[in-house]
Structures are given as structure tokens and as C-alpha cells.
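The freezer alarm interrupted the setup, so I double-checked each line after restarting. Inputs confirmed:
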Amino acid sequence: MLFNEVYGSYFNAVAAILKEAVSGNLSGKRVTEIAREKAFAESVLTIPASLRSKDWPLLDDSLRASVRRAPTMPLTALQKRWLKALLSDPRIKLFSPRIEGLDDIEPLYTQDMLVFFDRYSDGDPYEDSDYIKHFQTILTALREKKKLRVRFIGHLGTHHSWLCVPYRLEYSSKDDKFRLITASPRDGLTVNLARIKSCELLEPYTEEEYQPPQPRIETLTFELKDERNALERAMLHFSDLEKRTERLEDGRYRVTLQYERDDTTELLIRILSFGPMLRVVAPESFIAQIRERLNKQISRGQTSR
Amino acid sequence: MAYSELIKNFERVRDYMREFYVYGFRSREEYRMKSPRAYDNERRRIESWLGDYMSFRRDASGKNVFLSVDSRAIPHNPLYKAFKAKSFTRNDLILHFYLLDLLSPDLASHRQALTVREIAERIETDYLSHFDTPYELDESTVRKKLREYEALGLLKSERRGRELTYSRWESTVDLSGWRDAVLFFSEADPLGVIGSYLLDKYDAAPDYFGFKHRYILHALDSQILCALLEIMGEKRRAELQVRSPRRGDLRQHTVFPAKIYVSAQTGRQYLLSYAYRQLKPILFRIDNIKAVKPGSVEKQPEKYGGYCEKFGGYLWGVSTGAEYLIDHIEMTVHVNEGEGYIVSRLEREKRGGRVEKIDDHTYRLTADVYDAIEMLPWIRTFIGRIAELKCDDSYVTDTFFADLTAMRQMYGGDADAVQ
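Predicted 3D structure, all chains:
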């Protein structure tokens, strides 16, 4: 059963409170802090009061726990079945988890039950031993806050060698690819993992060297009319981006999107995919690119059946 | 009933969260799902769970609430929080901590497992007697909770003579070795919410994975998806209650669930199933499925699964058209010098189609699909390069060229033109 209180934030918060109580370090202030950290905005109104009033008889007046050990919960059958299902995902090889304890468990699902029908087919080689090695080196660098020396061949065939501070391993389900995003030497350098030829773990980086990249954010505004289910399609399609939707008159809507400048070409073709269902109204530079594509199409010849 | 930030049933909040996230321009008065008070309560709950991601705007129609996130910038799907807001009784809460404590291996070591009566007695003597306030917990309540925890896999039972004894399931799974995998799959897997539950077991969840093209809304359908996958694993029929997207009414369907189709470009999920009444494969949007129940075990799973497999071979996306007819479509694309990436695009995005080289600058994609009109959004991404488009359903090409003309008017001169 997926929706169950044993997974809930209240149970987690109370477990954390009891853990501190068992160790003898609990204070009234900590009860409130833990409720705020582990549960929701209004939980500070309920959790501390219920414990204090003994409506939940788990702490005495001296904040000693009635349980004798710091609470732990065994894995549920659902959690074990999910872990077992992951073992058949090709990407699990990147992590090499230990499979002990899952031998007799039925997987929650098998890979052949899922079809990612619009995922690109040139995804990363998750079975390739060099790829796995590079991935794990990068993961270690992220975990242990160390620098990396990365050598790779760029998309124009040029050889590169970077000394870098890793920031994120970024995955795209649409591309089925991982990218390494770096914190330095230059703002937000990105390399596709499949292009990496070698990857070397170096010394730890300093706090000064860790400069999270600042994305260059652009704004695009389009208007659409809700025909051919365009409103729902556009709202879902662009829901990966920060957006704001306003209703105008005559069944029209104005949508403002924030996107990263490096993704302009990708956004252009995403916009084109909607055809005349939506009209970009700003910025002018983006409109000019749409116009250029349309002009090229006209010069290509076929403009009617 | 007094307001609580916790919920008993996920279904109502599922609709509100979708509305706030997908649309976000409707005012309180426009939510006709329930009364204004119900709207206020749901909005307040969602705000309590997701306050950091909620925004407000006032326009002529009133105050609008919306959820908006740059999904590339957040390490964890915030919508999972809703699954952690299940309501409970105080018996649920105290029995959870008492039982798991009482049956911990070292505390129960003098006897590995305890009977229901022993457990009820020990709860009274070892826990409740510490408090002055009387607290009634009868044996049947304890028994019910033990059975529930056995079903969840937290406890196991064994016979001791005529009595049943209970002990904790102690897993030998090394969770520390799973942390990075759980961190990644809690966001990348369609049932990542289960990973999110596991992450709560660790002291901290690092944020070194990022996700691009990430669609978080599917999380709200996790209960339905989980139920479907379990039914599929048992090769059973499924009884579905589905909301019709056009009419809004609820309909019952008995189906053999075959595959889950997932869009990596919108996050939307679909069930491909064989519908017994209609005698054909049908796709259902999972966000339209309101309830799922397991039916009888299907005696011929290969037969119905095979129908769906064959059917899926001709799907471009998830549409079949009303007639279930297969359209032949050809798109010829011009590729300039140094534009090999266009050929790469055709190859990686062709799905069931075929790509052939005509000459050094010309490539043709050919596909046979149900409802070629569904390909138009993708075909439009090649605007500027399309040398020829042919389809045996003239509606497809007519629509494409009419749209092209409309776009030329839209961006070429008439500033007010929105088709």
C-alpha cells in the first residue's frame, strides 16, 4: 500500500524526536525544531502539543521516551520490491548496490512493462565498463568533494582536458544521457559523460574553488488560444520550466517561461512543434529565429500539398 | 470536522494539485469540484506541504493560486510530500512505536516472538503504565494492527502451538550501499516516491544529481501506477474507473493491462490494455484513472498481451484515431554541409520509422503509424528543412500546410493573428 502513514512525515518527525529523547538530549525547543524540519509548515502546531499533552503517550514530563531504543523501522515489502525492480534497470550498473536481502523478493515491476515511447534512442552506454568507471569516479568526486581531471572529445572533434570542480551529474530522461556540470574553472561547463575518454580523481577542492554555476536565465512570452487542446498540451509540455499563466480575453492565455540561454535552440523547436497554436510575443530575437525558419521553409519549395 | 493538514484520501487533493500546477490561473470561484470551504481547506493543506513552491496572483477573476518550479533547479520532487501526509489515529501512532520497540531483536531476545496477548500485556506494563492518564488499548485493536503490519512486511507471524506469534522482519539489505542509487531513482523512476520514502531513512539526502527535462506531475498518479504494475505482475484483469476527459463522467472498464507508456517529453503516463468489451487494445491516460481493482487471473495472458504488443508496433505516440487505420507517411528533409546532427536527430527520434539517405543532402523518413496526425508536432520541429511531406491521409498534409500558412501570417505581418 503506497499511501500509508508509516511513510508519513509525522511518523518520521516523531521517530526523530524519540531518537533524541532516547539519547537524553531532547529539549522542548528541539521538539519544535524537529517538527518543523521533518514535517509540514503547520505541524509545529500539532506535534509538540500532542506529545506534551500525552495525547500521544510517548514522552514523559521530563521528555524521556517511553520506548527504550531509538526507533527504527524494517523495510516494508513495497520498498524491497521497488529495490528489486531497480536491479533490472540498465542504469543500476552505475551504482553497483549490494543485492543481499533481495534474493527471494518479487520485483514490483519488470522493465518490459514500461515503454518510454518518445525517449531518444541514442542514450548512454550504461553497460560499457569505461563509461561505468567514469561515472563512478565522478560520483566519488561529488561525494568526497574532490577535483577531477577530465579528458574528452568535443562535438567538433577537438580534444579537451579540464581540471574541474564537479557540481552536478545531470540526467535527462528525454535524451537518456548524463552530463557532468562543473562549478569551476568556468561557469557551468558541461560535458556529456559518453564523450569522456578519461577521468581522474584529484585532491579535495577548497570552499573558494566551489563556485556553483549561475544559469543565464532568459524569459519568453507566448500567447495561445485553447483550440485542439493546445492549452493543456502546452501547460504539460512546458511544465519542466518555471512558468506563469494568465488568462486574457476571448479565450486566450499568456504564458511566460524562464529558460536557460544555452537551451534556446531546443526551446525554439519545442515552440515550433505547436505550430500556429501559440504565438511568441517576446523577445524579438526569438521571434526573428522563428521567422528565419519559416522563410527557409518557404524557400525550400513545398508549402502546400 | 476540524481542519487538519493530513488527509485520509489522496484522490481529492490529486485533482487540486494538478490544477494548481498545470494551470494556475483559476480563481477560488472557478473550482467547482467542491464547496468554497473544501477549496479553502485543500489550498491550505497544499500550502502547508509546499509553501515554498506556491505563488499567488490577483487578477480580475480574483486571487489565483499556482505551483511553479524550475524542475532543473530542485534536487527532489516536492509533490512527493503529499504522499507523506496520510492521516492516522493516535492508536496508529503509538502502536507503531510501541510494537516496533517491543519486538526489537535485543529487547525480545528472551523470547524471539510474542503472542497477541503477550504483546497487549507488555504494551500496558512496559509503556502505558509510565503515564498517569489512563489509555485504553484492547487486544483486538492490537491484533488488527499486527495483521496490518504483517501485510506491510514490517512483521512476520509464526504458529506457536495454537497461538500465533509476531516478530519483526529484519532485512539484510545494506541500505548504506544503496544510497546513491536510491537518490537517483527516487527522481528518475516512475515510482520514485517509494525511493523518497527510503531517502527519509538516511540522515541526509545529498543533492549532487540534477535532472533536465524533468516532469514531476506524474508523481500524483503513483498510487494508480503502482496498483497497475502489481496487477500486471500477477497477469490479472483490472477493473478501472476512468474519468472521460471530454464529458467528465466516470466509466467502468474491464481490461487486461499490458504496458505502461511513459512520455519523456511531458511526463504523462498511459496504460496500454486490451479492453474486453470493445474487443480491442485501448490506451488510457493514467491521470484519468480514478480507481483500480485487481480482477481474476487472465487465462490467456499471452494472447491479449500479444494483441497489445502488435498494436504498439504501429503507435507513434498514444493515439490511434477513431478508425484504427494505419497511415503511411514520408518526410524528406534537406541537410546542409556540416549539419550531420540533423541526420542524427532523424535516427534517434524516428521511433518505429525508417530513415534512408537519398543523396548527400537529402534524407527521407518513412513511417506506418496509427493516426499520422499525431506526428505533426514532431514534423514541425523540422520546419526550414522539409523538402517534401506526403501522407496517404490528406488531412495530415492539409493540416500541416494550413498551419504553415497561418504561422507565416502570424510572424510575417498580422500581429494579432493567433489561430
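Quick read of the result. Residues 217-300 of chain A form a domain with the Alpha-Beta Plaits fold (CATH 3.30.70.240).
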